[in-house]
Amino acid sequence: MRIAPTTTAGRITTLAAAVTATAVILAVIPGHRGWFDVGVYYGTVHHWQQTGAIYDYLRPGTVYGFTYPPFAAFCMLPMLLLGWHPAVAVSVALSTVATALLLYWTVDPIARRQGWNRWYAFGLSACLCALLNPVRDTVSFGQVNLLLVALVLADWKLAQGRWSRYAGIGIGLAAAFKLTPALFIGYLLLTRRRAAGVALLVAAAATAVGHLAAPRESGAFWTRALWDTDRVGAFGYISNQSLQGGIARLGPELPGRTIWLASSLVVLAVWAYRVRLAHRAGDRLAGYALTGTACCLVSPITWVHHLVWLLPALVILADAGLRSPQRARRRRLLTAFWAAQVVLCSGVVWLWWNVPGHGIGVLLGGNAYLLIALALLVAMPIRGRTGEPEEPAGAASAGEAVDEAAGAGRGAAPLAEPEPVGAPARH
Predict the structure, then answer these.
(1) 58 strand-pairing partners
(2) Contact 57, 65 (CB under 8 A)
(3) Which of 53, 373, 409, 419 could form a disulfide with 338 if both were Cys (CB 3.0 to 4.6 A apart)?
(4) Which residues contact 315 (CB under 8 A, 6 or more apart)?
(5) CB distance 413 to 337 below 8 Å
(6) Spatial distance between the Cα atoms of 382 and 4, rounded to a whole number of angstroms
């Protein structure tokens, strides 16, 4: 039985209803962050202009200050030309554009391959994306995460076309702006891609620009601010969904740093093994997705809004289910996708913040996003490695795949196409 609408009027009606429901949910759901991080950025650049200092600025009434390298502060200098409300508007606009690019790059190729209506698939996927807790927090805090994900995936797109010689620029800029994406340079080195050299050169050049713009503050960052964890908050705070955060919540009596180092090495070993599998299978997006997931896990601080790095992995999970010719496997993968989608939309980790004790329910609920990241690192499908044939566009199974997705979650799942072989502010 066909569930997805087949007429333009039906699609418009369904999409309008989805957009309206999404807007209402976003308007009434608790957890609006009041553009806190935009306030930190805005205050920092004005403080820099007035005093020449970056890292001694703290947002009034808090202990939170600027935690990125000087190159990031240099990139934010245009905020000096804006008032407060225009700065917030620009932040929202940039995150919206970055999200639209990410969805276009990943949804549109699969919508074409599956024979779906492209604008309808894009619209429903945008609603699903907007509901995700990490996306909501990124926009509401005024964070830069979606911009960084777009920069990194821009390299994935560049590598596919005639501009491939420029691949690596996005990763280099992202790594200079914020240190966590530097693991993507490791991915390029591990898979022996020429873009690794470009990324290293760009990262070094951008870091040099930051040093030239603020030589004294550059020294302060690398010798003092980088190591001052009090500037970003406690490891055990519920929003920290990294390995370190999960360990800290187990109890202060544990040797947290030792366990974190050991578990991080295990995660990096799994990451290296799986990205090599993805490389051999020709699934570059899987390599990027696995790297983004590993970044979230091994970083000492991974606030909920940082988990937008899981978006490519969620895309691949949905796509692998939709393209599988085996009905049982298709249902299993789509069920896993919808389960992850629901949990990541739910804000369940916040429900356990004031619950005392260390019972299994508290531990599972309080670490739900961390557990999803671990599951994606270990079990995210790598397309092509199983030898399953791809379903051609327009095949009879395309309509069946649409129905399967709609039946599993009453909406269109975000998709991606593999490449051919070839709270307080939280920063």
Answers:
(1) 65
(2) yes
(3) 409
(4) 106, 107, 285, 289, 414, 415, 416
(5) yes
(6) 27
Residue 42 phi, psi dihedral angles, 5° rounding:
-60, -45
Paired with 65 in beta bridges are 58
Q: Name which of 302, 294, 298 is nearest 274 in CA terms.
A: 294
- DSSP codes of every residue in 234-250: -TTSTT--SHHHHHHHH
Radius of gyration of the chain (CA): 21
Contact 344, 369 (CB under 8 A): yes
Q: How far apart are CA 75 and CA 426, in angstroms?
A: 19
CA distances from 69 to 73, 152, 185 (A): 7, 18, 17
pLDDT by position in tens, the chain (length 427): 345 778 888 889 999 999 999 999 999 887 788 899 999 999 999 999 999 999 888 888 888 889 899 999 999 999 999 999 999 999 999 999 999 999 999 988 888 888 888 999 999 999 999 999 999 999 999 999 999 999 999 999 988 878 888 899 999 999 999 999 999 999 999 998 888 999 999 999 999 999 999 999 888 888 887 776 666 667 888 889 999 999 888 877 676 788 989 999 999 999 999 999 999 998 999 999 999 999 999 999 999 999 999 999 999 999 999 988 889 999 999 999 999 999 999 988 887 766 666 677 778 888 999 999 999 999 999 987 433 333 333 333 333 333 333 333 333 333 333 333 334 444 4
Largest CA distance in the chain: 67
Cα separation, 196 vs 307, whole angstroms = 24
Alpha helix ranges (H) inside 29-143 = 36-51, 70-75, 84-114, 118-131, 133-141
Burial (Cβ within 10 Å: 0-12, 13-18, ≥19) of residue 94 = middle
